[in-house]
């Protein structure tokens, strides 16, 4: 009896435990809530790798698509611009060096397209941005149904180029068009908008103005709403009216935004293609019977896909690219001066 009581009072030691049963300390070491050795370090390494690699994985699709559809074609265009290449025989390439660029500089059609691009860009950009600033200034005040007006202004931008241009073709029709019908009431003879020099450029410019004015107005409106209200209150206390507030407060604060829209509009004018192509109809790629509204985009399309001279068309494309680089450099210089002046 004594031995049995002592056995119950003193449990068996680890050495005397039954086979397969671990001691209490060993069981506690691997109990619930603990992890095997090395798990923490593995998870920490995985976390660090995730933090470093995830941003690159997220932006990788953009660079893949950009490289496949922008960078590679750009390099191929640069290669073609240094060769004599025909659209019907892409494998037959002969080295031309800078001959395609020299031919462009001596071509009257190139300088005509460059001049038309500049004039249409000026005619479309200046009224467009002025109207956009005025519309944004009107919407910046509390108007009834301002949200509806913002949606209405953005509707032309959402309209396709083809649909908008075809409507303007009907408006500027020489026989039965609404524009000539309205001009008849003020004693102006009907104008053949497609065949006249300034008339055709003005007609193409109105399409651009109609499509992009609302878009730029919303950009200006967002910039106006970011101007601190304290500036307007201080100007009002000094006796400044709405026009003086707009001139001395709004416009100076909008200078970076105005510069941005000017650069973007210049880039769009340099690449203008769809509006003049559809406006001209059959002779759209030529920019009219006398190339009176042929832009650089149309000239490149005409040389590359209508005539089939891909080498010259590639040289035109790179000339447009160099023009845009010059515009970007001018933008950078003006931006730096504005920052220094502030």
List the defining traits of the structure above.
342 residues; 2 strands; 72% helix; 3% strand; disordered N terminus
Principal-axis shape:
globular
Helices and strands, in order, run as HHHEEHHHHHHHHHHHH
The proportion of residues in beta strands is under 5%
Percent helix range: over 70%
Summarize the structure.
With 342 residues, the protein is mainly alpha-helical. Helices cover 72% and strands 3% of the residues. A hairpin with a 2-residue loop joins strand 1 and strand 2.
Can you tell me about this structure?
The radius of gyration is 35 Å and the shape is globular. The chain starts with a helix and ends with a helix. Mean pLDDT is 83; it is low at 1-33. It contains 15 helices and two strands. Strands 1-2 form a two-stranded antiparallel ribbon. With 342 residues, the protein is mainly α. The chain has helices at residues 2-9, 24-29, 39-81, 99-105, 108-140, 146-158, 161-171, 178-185, 197-225, 229-237, 242-253, 255-270, 274-280, 296-307, 310-341; strands at 83-86, 89-95.
Strand and helix layout:
Elements: H1 2-9, H2 24-29, H3 39-81, E1 83-86, E2 89-95, H4 99-105, H5 108-140, H6 146-158, H7 161-171, H8 178-185, H9 197-225, H10 229-237, H11 242-253, H12 255-270, H13 274-280, H14 296-307, H15 310-341
Antiparallel strand pairs: 1-2
Helix pairs in contact: 3-15, 4-15, 5-9, 5-12, 6-9, 7-13, 10-11, 12-15, 14-15
